[in-house]
Amino acid sequence: MDELFSADNLKWRDKAREIAEDVVRPLAAKYDRLQEYPWEIRDALKEAELFGVWIPKEYGGHGGGVMDLCLVVEELSKACGGVGVLFAVNALGSFPILVAGTEEQKKHYLPQIAHGEKLIAFGLSERPAGSDASGLVTNAHEDGDSWVINGQKKWTTNGGAADIYSVFAVTDPNSRSRRISALIVEKGDPGFSIGRKEDKMGIRCVPVVELHFDDCRIPKDRVLGGRPGLGFKHAMMTLDRARPGVAAQALGLAAGALELATVYATQRKQFGQAISGFQMIQQLLADMATNVEAGRQLTYAAARACDTGAEGITKLAAMSKLFCTDMAMKVTTDAVQVFGGYGYMKDYPIEKYMRDAKITQIYEGTNQVQRLVIARNLIKEAGRLDHLSAFIPLPDHENTIADQERAASAAGA
Ligand SMILES: Cc1cc2nc3c(=O)[nH]c(=O)nc-3n(C[C@H](O)[C@H](O)[C@H](O)COP(=O)(O)OP(=O)(O)OC[C@H]3O[C@@H](n4cnc5c(N)ncnc54)[C@H](O)[C@@H]3O)c2cc1C
Known about the structure:
The protein is of the alpha+beta class. It folds into 3 domains: 2-118, Butyryl-Coa Dehydrogenase, subunit A, domain 1, CATH 1.10.540.10; 121-229, Butyryl-CoA Dehydrogenase, subunit A, domain 2 (Beta Barrel), CATH 2.40.110.10; 233-383, Butyryl-CoA Dehydrogenase, subunit A, domain 3, CATH 1.20.140. The chain is built from 11 helices and 9 strands. The protein has helices at 7-34, 39-47, 66-79, 81-100, 103-114, 231-267, 279-308, 313-339, 350-360, 367-381, 401-410, and strands spanning 120-123, 139-143, 146-157, 164-170, 180-186, 192-197, 208-219, 269-270, 273-274. The strands form 3 sheets. Strands 2-3-7-6 form a 4-stranded antiparallel β-sheet, with no helix packed on it. A hairpin with a 2-residue loop joins strand 8 and strand 9. It starts with 6 loop residues before the first helix and ends with a helix. The model has no long low-confidence stretch (mean pLDDT 96). Flavin-adenine dinucleotide is lined by residues 122-125, 130-131, 155-157, 200, 208, 359, 362-366, 368-369, 372.
């Protein structure tokens, strides 16, 4: 497999693997219990220069892309799914600037993120606007040299820890296609505050909070790309690039759970032998490993498509997210099964994988929404397959292929 990667891909993957084993794994249970941001892990990631992997060199990064992001997230998530998202959410927050920011915005914000000096978050969802993100109601209006924002965001990952926020707000309520804009909000902007912090099932080391905007005033040049109205398009372009990162988080969780389950199965003895000797345990492990590998290939394919600008990244990104996150839920649940009753206990590391995996099926678009995205794109592409219509009998079709063959044979052809 390694021969498919560039030297840089392998360098960042190996660095992430080292941090995951030396720093993240020993601290994972502690921060899961405390539900506090693990600044010592952030410091290790910063020192290893990992925050620059998806950012171009001209903006202070290492010039990699979604592939390097996915390789790092996979390795971190093998040790802790919370740390996987703690890292990946900075890509989610910075992709709007990367894909749509003005040159000044890119030069100002991206180097700070690439160097790990500032963390960033992505505020799209609201109480009334979850799967239907376009239904958001937080609004912003121009006032002299400023934008004034009012409203609340729900479930902003990294909120509170982050210094920079990509925030989506209605700027033209009367427009159908140009209703929403992306704005860059900074910690300390007047009228901006952090609201309630959620108590979560999994990914407990990373904060998920409400953002409150009460006449929050920001300079006019903080509208993304320098002009309003393109926010929803920018949000969708961001999600296309970020969803392989969620796939990588799920993949890492599944791969990490498989490793733990395999080792446990070779050590735990029942009926006088290691449980890895029982065929039903072997079947579980074999199915887990096969699904992990299938997810890995799909994730890398989606990441490569994003980096090369290939056609169809929306569908492929949604497929990678859908497959890997459903797969991770199944694999982590089966891993708990391999551990038996001990797997159900917090004294053992495996139940955390199952809790951390669940959110991957929900955020950045639930898996129902991914299926909608995939199906819509499939149907849109069906036009390319028009030549097949001639071979498909339809119930109301008077002249099917079989009819034609019968007619030809009756005519003695
Ligand atoms: C821990 C956590 C972290 C998050 N982090 C962020 C973040 O950093 N930034 C951010 O902007 N958002 C974030 N979110 C929000 C997340 O993206 C939303 O929760 C998600 O998009 C679903 O929205 P909802 O929770 O309102 O569910 P709803 O939209 O209310 O959906 C409820 C159920 O209905 C289903 N459903 C809805 N519409 C359809 C449909 N058309 N067809 C079929 N089924 C449908 C859904 O799949 C789901 O099963 C986070 C959420 C959580 C829980």
